[in-house]
Hints:
The protein is mainly α.
Amino acid sequence: MEAGFTGGTVLWAGVFPSMATLPYIWFVFPAFIGQRHLYIATSEVFAVVAEALIIATMLRLKPTVGLALSLAANAASFLLGILIKMDGQ
Length: 89
């Protein structure tokens, strides 16, 4: 790792942000947002922003780099979910 990160640090920075935001996305937002599309949009924006801040803080990166990493990870996760759902239909 060029920037001086250990594999464990990078792994933890990949896992912890999701662990921190998932309970809000699964349990808090559905209790307050009834419309499905609004729930999905709100949850995704929340996840990207919150996880970007966590990643940037954990890895001591610029916020824009944290945002890019978070956006890429969440886009991949969202698209994978769509593909899995399509396969099950």
